[in-house]
Amino acid sequence: MSIARCGLMVTGLLIAILSGLLVAQESPGAKGKATEKKAESKSSDDPVPPPPPPPSASKKPSTTKAAPSKSQPATVALPNAASAHAALVKIQTALGQNPEWDGIQMTSVRFENDQDQLLLVVDGRLSEGRLRSKAGKVCESVMQEMFASANGVLPVPKLDQLMVIRPAPREAATIFDEGLQHYRKGNHEAASQEITRAIVENPFNLGYKYWLVVVEVAAGHDDQARRLLRPLILRRTQATSTKQTDEYTEVQRRLESVQGAIRQKMNRLEEELLRESAPK
């Protein structure tokens, strides 16, 4: 082999080695560019989803009790005026049929709120202080009848306004005579006012109460007359002593001067109420 041919072979071998080295150096870059191009292509076509959130630590149930919220006391709705009037009628009827309770006079009642408590405020008079507790029991019984059956708030009787005033029979007799004069003149409104005053001053006189019924009948106030007469009829039917019977007989004697249409109406009212109060 000649020297020139050997030189050419060596030169070719060197060139091949150098070419391989160049290819090896360029290969990572080209690969990187290809990967980068592929990533760009993927990001443009299919958005890469966000990485999943880190796992959250499980919450342990709190053992601390929440402080109770401070709620304002609920305001109890006041019954209307019609309920107050109905309560007064029931109380007066309950008191009027028992002669032992004549010293308890309740002239008006109203409902009031005291924070979250409903009160039945009673106005009137007592002939003796010991009757206050009895008056309270009668009011409680009526409130139980009116409100407990409807699952409502039971009003609490407030009897501070019941003043203790001794009866004044002489003054009452004078006032009653003035009322009779108004009645004979046909002035029924003034007669009713004066006889009512006489009853206030002497609630133990049964005759005054019957005469008030006569005046209301004469005035054409049938509902009022019936309301006043009902407890008196109940008292008569429940009489347990000769004294009560004699008292009623005396009243009837004093009413003999009442005749005509007024007396007939009185008799019809008594008969109706007697039938209503008769045991079924």
Please provide a written account of the structure.
The chain is of the alpha/beta class and 280 residues long. The model is unreliable at 27-46 and 68-73 (pLDDT under 50). Strands 1, 2, 3 and 4 form a 4-stranded mixed β-sheet that branches. α6 packs across α9 (260-277). The chain has helices spanning 3-45, 81-96, 131-147, 169-184, 188-201, 206-218, 222-237, 242-254, 260-277; strands at residues 104-114, 117-126, 156-158, 162-164. Helix content is 59%, strand content 10%. Among the domains are: 81-164, GMP Synthetase, Chain A, domain 3 (2-Layer Sandwich), CATH 3.30.300; 169-277, Serine Threonine Protein Phosphatase 5, Tetratricopeptide repeat (Alpha Horseshoe), CATH 1.25.40.
Characteristics of this structure?
280 residues; alpha/beta; GMP Synthetase, Chain A, domain 3; Serine Threonine Protein Phosphatase 5, Tetratricopeptide repeat; four-stranded mixed β-sheet; 10% strand
